[in-house]
């Protein structure tokens, strides 16, 4: 920061008296100034040189760093002129490695370099930020950074930026460094023109507020906080060093706001740290969920994840509460670089959905063939529930993102659409696998299988709808794969449905088949309609299957679909033929022929023959069992022809 070197006379006197009692740094200064070029190739080589080959005391090391920096690093006025303060570009420029390489910096870079070198030497140093007062009494809006360093158990303050001199652009004159004025300055002296945001760095048991500092005329005794409680800064600093970054920031900002409730800097720092912590926590949760998805045997505590997400939500809410209280226009610009609160809420909802998705993914990997039928249905119910919960969250997140056309938001929407479709996809696969077993199942289990198939179809349709709705902004490889899989999966489900409907109707209406005559106007028709539904599902499946690009599996699925259509028509024919046979038995037992019996029997025989004709092309394409079924069909047709002749002769 631009700093003129001329100071008030009484300040100079104080500094002079202090320096008169100080150590003689002539030898140390000369050593630092004679540092060879190769010693400053990196932070490590420079620190190794400036520590004096093990001969320097802690104070000498601190001085060596101060002297080298103030004589080798120049103030970078272009950062101010180009309004780079507060930008990511400037943050990178002020990193110690870059300051050393470029040999220029603003106050942040000076402090960063000093702290880095001190820490590499084993010294405890901290960066202090705050406001400064120029010699004309003006307090610039732009903040400043300096150094606190602990030597022999005591904390002192240094400002390498102001110690480096300054450049007057109007006079085009560079004023040389001031070696002693801002090195290891007593806190009572430093507070006159340096006010730290964090009161702990006043190094005073009774620190003053910013308002007191700004109105202090420097001629009166230093004002003190109106608080009657002493401030044990040494203990506070010691405690600070035990905290993690988040807790340290929170404690620091709390102290700042205690002394200066409307401090925009503290409010901004607190808001940004809450925002950062929320993002970090949310990413950690997301990454952990990803690892759990690929480790199905690991325990998953969903309650803990939702508690963590609730905490993240509190971080974001508090972040925006602090940031919205900021009055400084320059600091308000920072908010424009952050995600709006509604998008943070959308991201939270997305991660909540991902908790359910992870459970769904883990459940879907269960080998259903190893489970009993009751456990299969229980697993499918859990899968269905997790799918509903996940997709509801994903859809809510999509709705919140829908109003933005930003490229980053569109990418996020594409990601959500993928997982939305993936939920339906996994749900479909699970219900497909869970409904595949029809052997030795009772009516209740077959009905449960049929319900599972319907849920699987609905999930698959939802998958297709979500993919179709995302056309134009979500064309990832995963989305395209699911789009290609749709016809084959739907055909498989329809094959299962056709065969399951056949089995369920056959079991449910067995008594109707055995004795159809009393049920001709009721359950008989219901049974036939059930078989016709089975046939329709087979025909629908064959039509959809024809659009599948997966040729390797298409043949097998086609055989199952044809088997479903063929068996359905055989049963339709068998039911119709059974009526004719039962009328025949009735006539044998009671020779008095009813007027309606003969035409009814012949009509039923014709309908049976028609059904057998429809069954034949299905059976011919139904795979390895087709020959056996076709032989059985021929036998049925022959018996039916004999019965037709018998009835025609009556």
TrEMBL record:
Domain of life per record: Bacteria
tRNA-binding recorded as keyword: no
Pfam families in the record: Transglut_core
GO CC entries: cytoplasm
Signal among keywords: yes
InterPro entries: CAP/Cytokinesis_protein, Papain-like_cys_pep_sf, Transglutaminase-like
Domain (Transglutaminase-like): residue spans on this chain: 99-162
Protein name: Transglutaminase domain-containing protein
Origin species: Haliscomenobacter hydrossis (strain ATCC 27775 / DSM 1100 / LMG 10767 / O)
């Amino acid at each position: 920061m631009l700093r003129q070197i001329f100071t008030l006379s009484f300040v100079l006197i104080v500094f002079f008296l202090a320096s008169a009692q100080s150590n003689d740094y002539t030898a140390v200064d000369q050593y630092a100034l004679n540092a060879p070029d190769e010693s400053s190739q990196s932070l490590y080589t420079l620190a190794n040189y400036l520590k004096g080959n093990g001969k320097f005391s802690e104070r000498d090391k601190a001085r060596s760093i101060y002297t080298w920096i103030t004589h080798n690093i120049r103030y970078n006025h272009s950062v101010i002129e180009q309004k780079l303060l507060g930008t990511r570009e400037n943050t990178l420029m002020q990193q110690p490695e870059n300051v050393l390489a470029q040999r220029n910096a603003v106050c942040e870079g000076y402090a960063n370099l000093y702290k880095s070198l001190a820490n590499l030497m084993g010294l405890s140093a901290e960066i202090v930020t705050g406001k400064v007062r120029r010699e004309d009494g003006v307090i610039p809006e732009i903040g400043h950074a300096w150094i606190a360093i602990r030597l022999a158990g005591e904390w002192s303050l240094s400002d390498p930026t102001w110690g480096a001199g300054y450049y007057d652009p109007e006079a085009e004159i560079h004023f040389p460094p001031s070696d002693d004025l801002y090195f290891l300055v007593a806190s009572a002296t430093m507070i006159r023109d340096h006010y730290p945001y964090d009161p702990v760095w006043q190094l005073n048991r009774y620190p003053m507020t910013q308002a007191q500092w700004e109105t202090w005329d420097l001629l009166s005794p230093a004002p003190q906080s109106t608080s009657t409680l002493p401030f044990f800064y040494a203990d506070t600093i010691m405690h600070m060093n035990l905290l993690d970054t988040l807790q340290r920031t929170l404690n620091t900002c709390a102290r700042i706001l205690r002394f200066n409730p409307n401090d925009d800097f503290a409010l901004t720092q607190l808001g940004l740290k809450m925002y950062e912590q929320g993002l970090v926590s949310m990413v950690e949760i997301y990454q952990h969920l990803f690892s759990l998805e690929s480790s199905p045997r690991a325990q998953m505590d969903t309650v803990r994840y939702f508690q963590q997400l609730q905490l993240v939500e509190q971080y974001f809410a508090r972040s925006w509460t602090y940031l919205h209280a900021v009055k400084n226009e320059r600091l308000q610009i920072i908010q424009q670089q952050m995600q709006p609160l509604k998008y943070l809420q959308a991201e939270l909802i997305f991660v909540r959905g991902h908790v359910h998705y992870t459970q769904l993914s883990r459940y879907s990997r269960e080998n259903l063939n190893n489970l009993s039928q009751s456990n299969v249905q229980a697993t499918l119910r859990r899968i269905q529930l997790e799918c509903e919960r996940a997709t509801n969250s994903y859809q809510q997140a999509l709705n919140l993102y829908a109003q933005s056309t930003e490229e980053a938001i569109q990418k996020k929407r594409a990601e959500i659409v993928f997982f939305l479709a993936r939920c339906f996809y996994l749900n479909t696969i699970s219900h497909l696998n869970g409904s595949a077993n029809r052997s030795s199942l009772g009516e209740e289990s077959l009905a449960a299988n049929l319900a599972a198939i319907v849920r699987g179809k609905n999930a698959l349709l939802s998958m297709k709808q979500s993919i179709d709705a995302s056309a134009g902004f979500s064309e990832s490889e995963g989305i395209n794969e699911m789009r290609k899989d749709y016809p084959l999966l739907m055909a498989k489900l329809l094959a299962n449905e056709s065969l399951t409907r056949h089995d369920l109707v056959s079991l449910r209406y067995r008594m109707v088949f055995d004795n159809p005559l009393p049920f001709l106007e009721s359950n008989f028709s219901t049974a036939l309609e059930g078989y016709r539904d089975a046939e329709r599902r087979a025909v629908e499946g064959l039509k959809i299957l024809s659009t599948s690009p997966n040729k390797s599996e298409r043949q097998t699925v086609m055989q199952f679909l044809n088997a479903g259509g063929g068996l359905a028509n055989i049963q339709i024919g068998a039911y119709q033929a059974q009526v004719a046979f039962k009328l025949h038995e009735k006539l044998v037992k009671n020779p008095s022929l009813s007027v309606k019996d003969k035409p009814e029997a012949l009509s039923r025989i014709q309908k049976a023959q028609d059904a057998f004709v429809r069954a034949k092309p299905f059976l011919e394409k139904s795979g390895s069992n087709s020959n056996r079924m076709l032989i059985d069909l021929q036998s049925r047709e022959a018996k039916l022809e004999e019965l037709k002749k018998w009835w025609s002769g009556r």
